[in-house]
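User: Second chain of the day. Same drill as before.
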Amino acid sequence: MKTNEAYCPLFFNEIYNDSSGEYRFCCHASTSERKFTMHTHTPFEYFNSEFMEEKRNSIMEGKKTHECRTCYEQEEATGVSHRTEEIEKYKKWMPTSVDKIQIKLRINGTYCNLSCYMCAPYNSSTRRNEMKEVYPEGWKWWQHEDYVSLKSKQWERIVDSIIENIDKVSVILMTGGEPLLLPNHWKLLDRITDEHAKNIRLTYNTNFTELQYKKHHARDVHNKFKSCQWIISCDHYGEKLAYIRYPIDVKKFENNLLDTTDFNDRGIQVSVSILNIEDLLEIEEYYNNKFGIEVMFKSIVDTPISLSIRNLPDKKKEELIKLYEENSTISTGGTGVAMEKFSFVISELKQPGNPEDLKKGIIYMTKLSKVRTIDHAKLWPEYAAPKSNKISVLTVEDK
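Assistant: Same format as last time:
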């Protein structure tokens, strides 16, 4: 399977859906035909469908599928991708049939207390509210899909399906919104019996700003489940973190890191964009030294493309590639898979960019700063709004 350039273990062991309700091959895959959504099919109806069997047979024959082009592009640039990482993770047992699976489902709602500047609006309620202020005419240019909530009966049907197949589940990845603040997240965990919980590993994608929700606390899951991994989303520190993950209480966030040093499987995942690309080593040193926590750089902002590091000037990209190649030590990245720490960063920097897209990103941040209490231009003067109309690249949607 290592030599099959189309094969990926996730076709056999992961069920994922996005906030629009569509099931996709994984969170990195592009949308498919929208034949299967959480409003029309349960997770296991989709996973066991003829459509998925045809896709599995196709990749087993070495036929690449267009939904996985992100990984193919990464491999062309550096030879490393999320696909190759998964292959390395399962190198002792390459799944070629459906058995134990991990579920990564956005079914519990999108309430989030933050509005991260690069977040897809359909993943965060606070983000959607802020974007309505910034773009009252709409933001279809940012994302084409809309958040579609589940009705209570639909949620119950999906959860019933999970519980009926719980013996097939080995990992549950909790995401949101902010999962720790979602009531349905806690209801789902309560539905899983202690007997099955001891065989299931939980993984959280969390902003780690609130550890308590009513009677529940983040510590509760450690006592019930086999293990728990905390992937903490954090993209800078101090004032720059306050802007990127607005309106985060930085002091409270750092106190939560200090109060959970006994959580033995946690790491910080940095979403790499134009606002932190020059500071990655500094960010790593800050969290390593102050909190003793590993920092990962596998999440690359490419939606919208205007915030991607690929659009930086070529000379700047060359300097950054050299910097991160020199400092790209071997890291497990919180997965147990050894790889170059900055592989995904370097891959994105090697992609062809567009200066016009970078200008659109600056225009967007200028609009965003007008509805926030923090001005991005004071923290990143290089991204201040252009003074000359000659270089303004407003699109029809931006006007």
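The two ends are 49 Å apart (CA to CA).

User: Great, on to the next one.
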